[in-house]
Design goal:
Number of helices: 7
CATH architecture: 3-Layer(aba) Sandwich
Largest sheet: 5 strands, parallel
CATH class: Alpha Beta
Oligomer: single chain
Structural class: alpha/beta
Strand content: 5-15%
Number of strands: 5
Distance between the termini: 14 Å
CATH topology: Rossmann fold
């Protein structure tokens, strides 16, 4: 199967009912090699914290969900190993450094970044990185 880089918008769908949660869950059983930078954990923590702020979840659930995330079958790659490529991507394509870390991981492992960020996907259309990113909704 293929190598897929999972961003936080996809990872939280494993635990929270959201549009395309089924697509995200299917990735876990589809035989793909799943990768993510260690940035995934603080980003997911921030998503959960925002849900708590909006009173959409209880605070005591957050540590349990993050603990579950740590046990998922995803290979975690240290962010510091991706900074050179991420810098190049951020400057060349005017993307945030956060997004560029995920994209750098996809480039480094000849994979594709799976995201729920439609704005990012649209921004990369017509660029050399277009084939490196795919919307979770397009994953069957």
């Amino acid at each position: 199967m293929s190598t897929l880089v999972i961003d936080a918008s996809v990872a939280v769908k494993w635990f929270l009912p959201e549009p395309c949660s089924i697509n995200a869950i299917r990735l876990l059983d589809a035989g793909h090699t799943l990768l993510a930078p260690d940035l995934l954990f603080p980003e997911c923590g921030n998503v959960l914290w925002k849900r708590w702020l909006r009173q959409e979840m209880e605070a005591d659930v957050i540590p349990a969900l993050l603990s579950d995330l740590c046990r998922m079958d995803v290979t975690i790659v240290p962010t510091y190993t991706l900074t050179d490529e991420a810098s190049r991507i951020a400057v060349t394509w005017r993307r945030s450094f956060y997004d560029s870390i995920y994209l750098a991981l996809a480039v480094s492992f000849n994979g594709r970044m799976v995201t729920g960020d439609e704005k990012l996907c649209n921004a990369l259309k017509g660029t050399a990185l277009e084939q490196r990113v795919v919307m979770i909704g397009d994953m069957a």
